[in-house]
Design brief:
The chain is an alpha+beta fold. It has two domains: about 90 residues, Orthogonal Bundle (Arc Repressor Mutant, subunit A); about 130 residues, Endonuclease Chain A (Endonuclease, Chain A, 2-Layer Sandwich). The chain has nine helices and nine strands. The strands form two sheets. A seven-stranded mixed sheet has the order 3-9-8-7-4-5-6, with helices on both faces. Helix 2 packs across helix 3 and helix 2 crosses helix 4. The longest helix is centred in the middle third of the chain and has 22 residues. The protein starts with a helix and ends with a helix.
């Protein structure tokens, strides 16, 4: 790896990079003539580059009766300053880009195959977290992709509609339980990916109906439900 070329990729001129890298090998401050000689460049070209390096904060200038002396700043400090500058620039770019209003997405579909296809796609695309509420017969088809999500570090919260006895169905990890009331929860599935997209389904086989949406009220309601159940379990309620 050539430090001169790597600095050049980051926006330094090749002359700036060559001078700076040369100066880092000297423990003492240098005259412009000494810098030019060390870097192997014409003396006339060194002073404009030194001025740019001073503005960049990559070198310091020390006064001296016979003329200024220059010293390289430790690269750790230079890199931190450049990182702050780049981060600030990127943030300003983001703030000034036109903001496009995205419409809420709402997809409805029917059938067990469509449910499995959409559910697998959501789990596979998850980057940070998944909230999954399911009954036994719907969670089984997601076992493989849920295991893969867990292996890549996706955080998961499981909600069991079946109140499976320990050890459970074998797919959910430390599931939260919820009373299903006086109805049969077979065929139920709720799945929220990265707090941005939610799938809700019920029914079995050809009678399966599902909704895939980015609407906030549904997503937020499910988030609160999971959070409340998690808190109750943590408190032993």
């Amino acid at each position: 790896m050539d430090p001169v070329q790597e600095l050049h990729k980051l926006g330094w001129t090749e002359l700036e990079a060559k001078i700076y890298v040369s100066m880092t090998s000297s423990p003492q401050s240098l005259t412009g003539y000494q810098v030019a000689k060390m870097a192997g460049i014409a003396r006339a070209n060194v002073y404009p580059a030194l001025d740019k390096l001073l503005r960049r904060g990559a070198i310091t200038e020390d006064p001296h009766p016979s003329g200024p002396r220059y010293r390289a700043v430790a690269f750790k400090l230079v890199s931190q300053a450049q990182l702050r500058s780049v981060t600030k620039s990127l943030s300003q770019i983001e703030q000034n880009l036109p903001q496009v209003s995205r419409r809420h997405r709402l997809i409805t579909a029917h059938g067990e195959n469509m449910l499995e296809s959409h559910a697998i796609a959501l789990v596979t695309a998850a980057k940070s977290n998944l909230d999954i509420g399911a009954s036994h017969n719907t969670i089984q088809s997601l076992a493989t992709v849920l295991g893969q999500a867990h292996e890549r570090g996706v955080g998961e919260r499981f909600l069991c509609f079946d109140n499976c006895p320990v050890p459970g169905c074998g797919v959910c990890r430390e599931p939260l339980w919820i009373s299903a009331g006086n109805f049969n929860p077979r065929g139920w599935l709720v799945l929220t990916k990265d707090n941005e997209e939610t799938l809700v389904a019920m029914g079995e086989g050809d009678e399966t109906e599902l909704v895939l949406t980015t609407m906030e009220p549904l997503r937020e309601s499910l988030r609160v439900l999971f959070a409340d159940l998690q808190r109750n379990r943590d408190l032993g309620l």
